[in-house]
Amino acid sequence: MNKKHRWTSPSNIAIVKYWGKLPGQLPMNPSLSFTLSSCHTETEVEWNSQPPSGDKRFVFYFDGRERPDFTPKLEQFFRFLDGEMPWLQDCFPIIRSSNTFPHSSGIASSASAMSALALCLVSMERDLFPERFPEELLFWRRSSEMARIGSGSACRSVFPLASLWGKTPSVPEGDDRYGIPFAHRLHPLFHGLRDYIFVVNASGKAVSSSAGHTLMAKHPYREARIAQAHHNLDALVSCLACGDWNEFSRISEEEALSLHALMMSSQPWYLLLEAESLNLLQAIKRLRESAGLPVCFTIDAGPNIHLLFPESCENEVENWIASEWKDYLLPGKLIRDCIGKGPIERS
User: Are the beta carbons of 20 and 213 closer than 8 angstroms?
Assistant: First the structure.
C-alpha cells in the first residue's frame, strides 16, 4: 500500500454557472465548464497510522506553512467522509498543497484544491479496496463525487477539456451527485480555447462563494434563475457541438452578468466587481465589435475577468493587450491559460 499520493488538479471555468445549492451539496441548477491547464493545485497526502500529537485528525500545509485557517472547512469535509470512507478514521493524513494562482480571488481555487485532495483520498481507497474499482470510470466518478462534497464546482475539475454537472433533459446521463466528461461533445473549435485571466484584484473575496450560494435559498429570482440556467445549458450543448461561436459568446456573457446580478440582488446584497472589471468588460465588447475578433468574457465569483477566444486569434489578442492594457503585462496581472487535459497523478 502506498504511503503517499500526489495529484495535480486544475481549476475550471464555468460557462453556465452553478449558483445555489440544495442539501447534501447538490446543485440548484446544472452547470458546464471548461477544464483549465495553468491554474492548478498540487496536493500530496502522506498517510500515517497515528497522529504525531494531540487529537488532530489531519495537518494541512499550504505553500509550506501550516494553515489553521483552512481547518474548519477541512474538518467539515472529513466529518462527512466518516460515512463515505470509514477507513479514514484509522489514518492520519498530512496534507501539503500549493497553487499556481491566487487563492480565494474568484478563480475557483476551491475547485482545484478539493478535486486534488479527493483524488488523493480515492487513490488511497483504491489501494485498500481495489475490488471496488473494476473500471477506470468508477475511479473518476468516485473522485468527482467526493470532490463535490468539499466544493461543488470541484466535481467538474477531474475531467479533461470540459465537464457537465447536474441533471438536465438535454444530457440524460447528467447527474447531481458527480460531474461527467464532456470532451467528446466538443467541436474542434473549442479544443484550442484560450482563457486569459485579467487579475483585477488578487486579494481574497469579501464574501465567499459558500455564503453566496446560501443566499440563493430565499432569493427573489431563484426560480427564474433555475429556468434560465436550464435554457442556457440546452443552448450551450448545441453550440458546443456545432462550433457556433456567436451563440457561445452570448451564453457566456449572459451567464457571467446574471451571476453578478444575483449577488447584487441578494438580501443582503453585495458586489464583487470593481471599476476596472467593468472597464475590461466594455473593452472586450468594443474589441469584438470594432475588430471583428471572436472574443467574449466570463466571470467567476470575483472581480477578475476571463477573456475567452479561439487559438487562431491569439496574436491579435496579444497585440491588443500590449497596445491598450500594458499594465497587465506586469508580473501577476495576466494569467494566460487554455483548455486543459485534466488531473495528473505525480510519482
Answer: yes
* Mean pLDDT value of segment 316-328: 97
**Residue 116 backbone phi and psi in degrees, to 5:** -65, -40
Residues 181 and 311 in one domain: no
End position of a domain, from candidates 128, 163, 187 = 187
- State whether the Cα torsion 78-98-102-249 is positive or negative: negative
The predicted-structure confidence for 60-98, as pLDDT tens digits, reads as follows 999 999 988 888 999 999 999 999 999 998 888 999 999
Half-sphere exposure of 37 (CA within 13 A, CB side): 13
Provide the pLDDT for residue 17: 98
Cβ-based neighbours of 102, under 8 Å, separated by 6 or more? 109, 199, 202, 203
What integer pLDDT is reported at residue 125 of this predicted model?
Answer: 96
Q: Grid coordinates 473549442 are at which residue?
A: 190
Final residue belonging to a domain, choices 187, 214, 234: 187
Quick check: is 327 in a domain? yes
pLDDT at 106: 59
End-to-end CA distance of the chain: 14
Q: Could you check whether the bond before residue 169 is cis, i.e. omega within 30 degrees of 0? A: no
Residue 254 lies in a domain: yes
Q: Give me the number of domains the chain comprises.
A: 2
Residue 203 vs residue 344, higher pLDDT: 344
**Rounded CA gap, 305 and 276, in Å?**
10
